[in-house]
Design brief:
By secondary structure, the protein is an alpha/beta fold. It is 39% helix and 21% strand. The protein has a 5-stranded parallel β-sheet with strand order 2-1-6-7-8, sandwiched between helices. A 3-stranded antiparallel β-sheet has the order 3-4-5. The longest helix has 23 residues. It is globular, with a radius of gyration of 16 Å. The protein starts with 9 loop residues before the first helix and ends with a helix.
């Protein structure tokens, strides 16, 4: 683990991501952060790229009796990612999945509206969009967010995260035009292990980054 970068906090990780994007010649017309933890990084990336910051929101679909275990995720527009292995392993029936999909899609819509504070969703047509989160493990919510963006008229979609396991990052590369990930350690056990400070971000603090 000594060779793995340890980020001081989410802002530090975002600043390093911004530097990495610029080093790769990636510029964007829009940065979309995934709340809540993605907002501190998104702010730093947006500032580095001199681009506006907004959000893209998805909610996890938890397994029956185990809501923390994702059998899928759904974005605010209803775009869904299904974890077929988890669905099979937990014997999640289709009726349950679709019921939770509708509920969590509505929760995601409400969260997006609350974060935007009455602003309309940004226009994506013909834009290069950078999607930012504070890291991925299984990447369930990221996958749902990317599914939503794939259905837009964005010219290019780039995913930027500080850290993720190699297999998840490889899977995500198939969903976007480019992935910028600073660390892909084989011994990955959780995003928080790569941060000195990985405290929870409140909705109020996260929304404040949109006003900066």
């Amino acid at each position: 683990m000594a060779s793995t970068r340890q980020f001081a906090d989410r802002t530090d990780a975002g600043e390093r991501l911004g530097e990495a994007l610029l080093e790769r010649g990636i510029h964007a017309e829009l940065v979309l952060a995934i709340p809540r933890g993605g907002l501190p990084l998104g702010r730093a990336v947006a500032d580095a790229l001199e681009a506006p910051l907004d959000v893209v929101v998805a909610k996890k679909i938890g397994a029956p009796g185990n809501p923390e275990y994702a059998v899928g995720a759904v974005a605010s527009d209803g775009s869904v990612w299904r974890n077929e292995r988890a669905i099979s392993g937990t014997r999640t029936d289709e009726g349950y999945f679709q019921e939770r999909r509708e509920t969590e899609a509505e929760n995601a819509r409400q969260k997006a509206a609350r974060y935007r504070g009455g602003r309309s969703a940004p226009e994506l047509t013909d834009k290069t969009v950078v999607v930012v989160d504070d890291g991925v493990a299984t990447g369930s919510t990221v996958r749902a967010c990317l599914s939503q963006l794939q259905q837009s008229d964005a010219t290019r979609i780039v995913l930027a995260v500080p850290v993720g396991p190699p297999d998840t990052i490889a899977d995500l590369e198939a969903q976007v035009d480019a992935v910028v990930c600073l660390e892909t350690p084989p011994g990955f056990s959780g995003v928080g292990q790569f941060y000195a400070d990985f405290g929870q971000v409140s909705d109020e603090d996260a929304m404040a980054y949109l006003e900066s």
